[in-house]
Amino acid sequence: MTTIIPFGSSIVITYFYTKEYLTNQAVQENSNLLYQGKLNLESYLDDIDQLTLSLYNNPDFINFLKSTHQEEHYYSIDIVKNVILTLLYAEDNIERVHIAFTNDDRILSASRRSTVIFSNKIKKVNEESYEKARNSPYNLYIEPTHRQQFTSKNETNKNVISMHRSFTDMPSDEVLAYITLEITPEKIYEISENLYERDAEEFYLLTPEGDLIYRSDSTDEQDHKWIAEILKKENESGTFEWKDDSFNGVIIYDQIASSVGEWRLVKRVPYVTLYESAFHVAGINIGFGIIGLSLVVLATLFVSLKITSPIKALLYNIQEIERGNMNVPFESFGDDEIGILGKRFKEMIDKINHLINREYKLQLENKTNQLKVLQSQINPHFLYNALQSIGTVALKNKVPQIYSLVTHLSKIMRYGINMDEDMVPLIKEINYNKAFLLLQKERFGEHLEYEIEVDDEVNQVKVPKMLLQPIIENYFKHGFDIRDGIGTIKVECKKEENLLHISVSDNGIGIDENRIKEIYRQFKEGIQNDGEEPTNIGLKNVYTRLRLYYGELAHFNLENKKEGGLLVTIKLPIRVDGGKHESSHN
Length: 586
Fold this sequence. Notes:
Helices cover about 50% and strands about 20% of the residues. The protein is α+β, with helices and mostly antiparallel strands and about 575 residues long. Among the domains are: about 140 residues, Beta-Lactamase, CATH 3.30.450.20; about 130 residues, no CATH class; about 140 residues, Heat Shock Protein 90. It has a six-stranded antiparallel β-sheet with strand order 3-2-1-6-5-4, sandwiched between helices. A five-stranded antiparallel β-sheet has the order 8-7-11-10-9. The chain is rod-shaped. The relative contact order is 0.06.
């Protein structure tokens, strides 16, 4: 689970992040595409509009419009015919051109399938469009797609878009004529079809009134709700979400300039299309995640078997020695850190057996406390917890962290099994306990905080070896597991009035006051029961060794702190030779 949860969380987070990113990116790309389409439509419609505006530069044509009611206007017919034919063939998609005179009842028209002809004006035909053109600030109105009118018998009605312009007598507002260009919508359709992905997206081209000029789907059904929502938007471009029975996704819109029709380009993109890339990326991530997870599990099993197997064998041997079997056979664990640990542990046992055979049996009664110290050095409870921490890290990581932990453990064991010195510099004892606390920190993580403060002037003061470790370890055995909040332990070493002052404080549950009195009584009487608690054994060993090395010069005090936890205070003479010399004085 420690591997699956991070991998799974990573995949889920990556999916949602990728989904959001790709969605925003898709919306932005579609907005840019609509903007480009808008520019293309504006350019196309503006080019056609410029054809009618260019007539203002033709004075003969304007004079003709002003004099259509006079007989002499027939002399300018050829000029007008040239003008209307020029408009007709100026653009491939212009199907027909006709001019409705305001002071005449006739219409001058020409198409690609007929000559220039005059015909009588049909009442009310195009009057509404002319009215919109006249009222427009640009004198222009673009009529949506419709069927042609005024066609001859041999012509087929086509779908066209009509551009109506009210031609005025500048600078006055008098309308001389209405010029209409009927344009086939192929070019507009071509531009529109390049703005969406068929079968995945929808595209619509709307007039300001909501009439459809182009739609990507072939159905005649029209949902007026979203169209009405589009028409309400005051911004020329934007994006909003829409959900109904037939669509669930994002609607993106843009608007061409008012001077060329004020059409709206609308694109509807379903969420399925937006999320398609995210689904694809998520599938790739899941695939790689499964492969990576498999490799991690295999590597974890390999490392676990390679490291935990010799640790379990070593732990079994330690338990046998704890039971009193000092002749446990040791197998070689290799040349790595675990192998070195096993080798040094075997050397320690051989040395212990040697001491037992030559000296320890002769001084068994006087050296009971020293034996307890040796037993605490190989305390299986500590070793089990330390190795369990390493095993847990081995399941989470690969090699570097394991190496660091085993290194700390090797330092601790080397320090513990070195029997050549009874007294060590304080800094050496502190470094040993730092390594011990580092292992505990790795085990408990953010639930443990520790602090060690040592004045420089007391670094080289010699103290009994393994003096602090039983006190610190006692906190983890009995005070840490049932603490509230973060466990803390603090070690302070300083000089006060030619004395080395050592204090170890924690935030554990402390010791009942009656129990403290009982512990002091056992200290003085030297009583040790078979069923005595490990707490008493560790503290009693420290007290007994202090008496062994310093006699009455050493002070050892236990007290509960007001804010909770235990405070252990030790005061020692700074100048002491230590060892057998001091013992002989006691």
